[in-house]
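Note to self: keep these together.
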Amino acid sequence: MNYEMLPTKQEIEDLYNSYFIEPIENSIIDPRITENGISKLNAKYDYQILKKIFDPYPNNSDYEQTLLKVYILNKLYNTQLEKRHNIGLFIKSINKNSEKIDQYLKEGNPDVVELIRWINNSDKIGQGEYSFATKFCYFHNPDKYVIYDSNVDIALWLYKDHIGLESRKELKNYPYYKCIIELFAKQVNATDLPKRQIEFFLYKK
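Structure:
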């Protein structure tokens, strides 16, 4: 991948469409399917599954509904919550703070990312559940939130000269990270594209 040149808007759209819009040749049980085809099917089905789980349950006061969302998101997007938390206690903490969390999610308030990120880590040791929090917020309100992923972090740093990114650690600051995604979109004349397409391009590159 050449990071000396920015991608075109068309390249960003084409990559996203190849995963989520265009039909994928052959089925996952067809022996002719390529590794790339399997990757596309996985991405497409993972996304569809999460939308079907999150859309009917926009609130987080019910333990079983929240459990379903957290568990499936954790498994499909490999956020590895179970390595750092008792999942049951993690969900109960979300339930306990659900009134504020749900209101913030509806508003698109970025503060909810930090609230979920540190929900069982009041001392703010380490990085918290930053990636999980952005994904959890995104699937509740995709028009207002963008997903943070370590692959996107790496790509943005490699494009740093084009977007004036001086400190990689600042990407762990959600409002700043979101602004950088928006700046990248502006630099490639793609501000009219959903931020998910920008983030997905960076994730795959």
